[in-house]
Amino acid sequence: MRSTRASTVLIVLALALQGAALLSAPAASVLAATPIAPIAPSTPATPTTPLLQRQLHGPTAQEDLLHRSTETTIPTAAGALAATVLQPETGGAVPGVVLVAGSGAGSRASLAHVATAFARRGIAVLTYDKDLSVYTPFSRDYAALGRDAAAAAAVLRQRSGVDPARVGVWGISEGGWVVASAAAADPAIAFVVMASAPTVTPGQQLEHTLARFLHEHGLGALRRLVTPQLALGRHVFDYTTYTPPLAQVRQPVLAIFGAEDATVPINTAVATLVQKLPTAPAIAVLAGVGHDLTTSPAAAERAGSWMHNPDQKRSFDTAVSQGVPVVAMPDPSPTTAVLLHGANLSLLTGLGLTVVAASRCGLHRATHRLTAVRLSTVLRSASRKAT
Fold first, then answer.
1. DSSP letters spanning 205-247
2. How far apart are CA 280 and CA 266, in angstroms?
3. Which of 351, 339, 349 minimizes the C-alpha distance to 225?
4. Residues 6+ apart with CB under 8 A from 183
């Protein structure tokens, strides 16, 4: 009973502190996310064809080439990483690409279907297992992961039948930060494909995702409280403020997004690429596609075609309004931070006491039931003996 009362008091206190923090926290400043006008294509568009539906066509792109698979390893500072190379059966040297997985364990098996799609289009593909020693829930070294991707590109350049001057990198989602780091550090990388890449910091990407969820469920007012809470998290998760080195990426860049992506602030991502990259990127926003571009045939076609001729600058419709702007995430004021820490501690303690109280209550009930069953069994046994 005392545990229940104490937990109720602590939860009420936590809500009160959260409310005080909400009042004391200033609104986070909004980052510019003006829709970018499409870059003029190298060939005139057909007036009857919407920009969103136009496609990139590489001069040698195919979709049905046979390919062979071989196993290899990637030498890194942490040791050798297992890798697989798919090479199309062609007579001449072909372009190559290293695939970099998104968040999670990132085994090469997770991108096997993407590798096959590109190999069938006349591209040599290398996939490899992510080095998890620099990738944990609390710490992620994108620079080290980028060096791994650059080492993988070096291995692919040495393969017979691969044109070493046309080997690039492709990264999905979180892998977009990795391939940007790899290209910035290694000028030998020929091109960069960023698929569903946020381009903002991981913290801002997460804040945008939660804010969009709140907005769509009529809870947008809570964003003012969510933002400083996430800002506090940077002291626990060391990678939330990572900024990809886009200004140092001098290779041709293709950025592909799904118009239905609920996790990437597309307008801000496009604006960031256009503003920070030394050369104008090629942009593709695919209608009816979400965040996972690894299963999109249209994404495979666009990237596969472009990699045969990455110098071509093409653009598609980038005016995707997601209704929620991206905000800067400064550290909360000392007052707000103290209130949030107090609220979080009170809430966790209250919930813990609630669990303890529920467990005790359940234990008491179970004990009573067991006692009643045993007593009933004894009485029945005595009754049988008496008769």
1. HHHHHHHHHHHHTT-GGGHHHHHHHHHHGGGTSTTTT----GG
2. 16
3. 339
4. 169, 189, 192, 249, 250, 251
Mean pLDDT of the chain: 81
Give, in degrees to the nearest 5, the angle at Cα 53 between 51 and 54.
70
- pLDDT mean over 4-26: 66
Beta strand pairing status for 253-258 and 67-76? unpaired
**How many angstroms from the chain centroid is the CA of residue 217?**
22
d(CA 319, CA 29): 22
Q: Give the confidence band of 42 by pLDDT, cuts at 50, 70, 90.
A: very low
Please choose, from the candidates 32, 5, 7, 74, the residue with its C-alpha nearest in 3D space to the C-alpha of residue 347. Answer: 7
Tokens 């040495």 found at: 158
Mean per-residue pLDDT, 184-197: 97
User: Is beta strand 282-286 parallel, antiparallel or unpaired with respect to 253-258?
Assistant: parallel
Listed by start position, the domains of the chain span 51-201+242-308
CATH, range 51-201+242-308? 3.40.50.1820
E-state strands within 65-123: 67-76, 79-88, 94-100
Backbone angles phi, psi at 35, to 5 degrees: -55, 140
Give the integer Cα–Cα distance in Å for 375 and 340. Answer: 52
Q: Which residues contact 316 (CB under 8 A, 6 or more apart)?
A: 38, 51, 52, 54, 283, 284, 285, 286
Cβ contacts of residue 197 below 8 Å, gap of 6+? 171, 172, 173, 175, 176, 177, 180, 255, 264, 269
Comparing CA positions, the residue from 88, 101, 333 lying closest to residue 227 is 333
Two tokens, residue 165: 């001057």
Whether 227 and 127 have beta carbons less than 8 Å apart is answered as no
Q: Render pLDDT for 311-346 as a digit per residue (tens, 0 to 9).
A: 766 665 555 666 688 887 777 777 777 776 676 777
